[in-house]
């Protein structure tokens, strides 16, 4: 029974780790609910009335969710600075509530300052959020100057409760968070291997579904890798360790993606296009049974399952685990590969590379391992890893020049939100002189974390949709609660937890839970009615419209312009990584390829987010949606091959099978020039320079002097070929002319 319970607990932890990497959403929900519960536990016995309880609860919620810093010391300073900001803001809200014109002008000024404060980093963002939220808390609870001492006490309790829960009850250290992210990466990698096993066994009618699962789990693994990389500096003791972990995570990600491609190629009649793994909805290539005898397929299935077990292994290795690891690592040596066709042998090689990457990640994170049961192949892999670790050193990154004036995003957003809020105030007061601030809140919220005009309508639509369904839920919950204050507060806490747990996943769901919670708060404040909830929908719709109008007419950033700017950035980063990797593979000086690859991933992530308005299901421009998805998928393919080239180039000083070849620089030069040509074309429509096509890169290197420079592995050539093909493929959707080779 105990063993079964432990297995169930392990499965539950693995499920949570995979669905919520780092438990970030769970932590946010628990912290917020804990802070509110503690605030209520302190204020209720002290005799606070419902109004002060609600104010204290909303204060603790704002003080908890607004903190952005990662280091605990910085969080404490920001929380301390937030208290006086909150006191002043709520006091001004109470003092100005009876002076309509002056209060409205101050509201707009406060909104401008809160948004503009984002230019001063995480602390400026937090203080702006606290000031804005507490001003509207005062309007929500109807605070008056006579009641201010009681509200000051409630605010102080709210901030103190937030601090206690953050630093004592639900503490999160950078090191602990990195440990949980490691667990998430491990589980997601194992789930990707499970999807690859399903792809191996899928029949012709199941291939599309199996491929979609591989595609989805590959994307989730990449998402977790980026989260780990963003937390490395705070979660590791020094910069060399951070760079080492970053390298090992990248190795595991690339090796697992390469394994999936090899498996797909082995099951199809010809080598699978890398784009197949990156284009949502792309059909699987025609697949048949794995070539070769059934014994080879059974062996491959067994080894994939062994690889999954190796990934999931925790604690010290036993003799059985060591034997399994030795067998998988042995596939990195040609003589240990089974007798099979070349594509199937590639799959076995891929298994060996993933096993090596898993071992390297485990060594980097957990330190030296027991080597007593190592086979010669495992010992060689350890020696390679040790040599690579010794070769890693740090270089400083250059800081990009920031835009100034109205070109600065924070300034532009502050002006836009101020104009939109002014419209929302005027329209909101026409609907209701008491609840106008809901329109302003919606206008504010639809601007948060948006960077282009096209994102505003999508966010406004999602908020309105969630609000409409939340009103229905609020009506049902208000009827359920009746006059039971304790039950109402319990349900409020549950809804707040759900709000923060679902916020990163679905803006619509978050809006639903917010509105349902407000229905209960209105019940507690004895201001609940059907008319109030309907007014909530009307004010929300008005605020969304005001946000769209302001974004479209005031200093607009068109979605096309925004995506083009980000596309140029991605292409520049792609060019930098590709050129630096090829230079190093050609025998040139070593560069900081890890940071360049990370910058490429970040730029691609920004572009992917910016294209969401174009790829949203409600967009009427179907052709643009298809083009946007295709371009992003091609760029993800390019990024994969560039990362693989960078990882291979970093192996150059230590790996015996990779040698520098000066001919690579000339052979790959066409690809780098093409990337830059496309970037120039996207940045300036007047540019008409074509990209070049020509003989394959492999054919350019096929001469009799190959032995003079040492062996360039087939893997490098395959990545260069695929990168070149994907770059040429970008020309058509981006309307770049292609110059055919001259004969």
How is the biggest beta sheet arranged?
Answer: 2 strands, parallel
The number of distinct helices, counting runs of at least 4 residues, comes to 28
Determine the mean pLDDT. Answer: 81
Gap from first CA to last CA:
75 Å
Report the portion of residues in β strands.
Answer: under 5%
Order of helices and strands: HHHHHHHHHHHHHHHHHHHHHHHHHEHHHE
Count of extended strands: 2
Percent helix among the residues? over 70%
Structural class: mainly alpha
What topology, given as strand order, has the largest sheet? Answer: 1-2
Low-confidence stretches: 393-401, 703-712
- Outline: globular
Q: Which value, in Å, is the CA radius of gyration?
A: 29 Å
Description:
The protein is mainly alpha-helical and 743 residues long. It has 28 helices and 2 strands. The protein has helices at 2-19, 24-43, 50-65, 72-96, 100-116, 121-141, 148-169, 174-201, 207-235, 239-267, 294-312, 319-329, 342-366, 376-391, 409-431, 437-447, 455-481, 485-502, 507-524, 530-553, 559-585, 593-610, 612-615, 622-651, 663-683, 697-700, 706-709, 714-731, and strands at residues 691-692, 738-739. A two-stranded parallel sheet has the order 1-2. Helix 16 packs across helix 17 (455-481), helix 17 (455-481) runs antiparallel to helix 20 (530-553) and helix 25 packs parallel to helix 28. It is globular, with a radius of gyration of 29 Å. It starts with a helix and ends with a strand. The model is unreliable at 393-401 and 703-712 (pLDDT under 50).
